[in-house]
């Protein structure tokens, strides 16, 4: 028995999330191209398995500031393996992998002009 606020050792379900480390796309891309890549990912992600409500929560978290993102993943029961949200699990053990381009902008983002 422990106090009401204790958790078992190894319980990473409440891991504090953070922004991904800076990254570079293989080719310089525009914001429009980045947005298209993100849209395509979110449209197809549920087809790779997992539950739609977890994909929806991860989508909302990816577009939110860190405080709100933390609240979203915590309330959805998402188990965060990597603090940058690139690898997560749901309570049933399904794996969700998010590419960095849906979580942050590359260092080589170029102007549309």
TrEMBL record:
<feature type="domain" description="DC-UbP/UBTD2 N-terminal">
    <location>
        <begin position="14"/>
        <end position="111"/>
    </location>
</feature>
<dbReference type="InterPro" id="IPR039869">
    <property type="entry name" value="UBTD1/2"/>
</dbReference>
<feature type="region of interest" description="Disordered">
    <location>
        <begin position="1"/>
        <end position="25"/>
    </location>
</feature>
<protein>
    <recommendedName>
        <fullName>DC-UbP/UBTD2 N-terminal domain-containing protein</fullName>
    </recommendedName>
</protein>
<dbReference type="InterPro" id="IPR032752">
    <property type="entry name" value="DC-UbP/UBTD2_N"/>
</dbReference>
<dbReference type="InterPro" id="IPR038169">
    <property type="entry name" value="DC-UbP/UBTD2_N_sf"/>
</dbReference>
<dbReference type="Pfam" id="PF16455">
    <property type="entry name" value="UBD"/>
</dbReference>
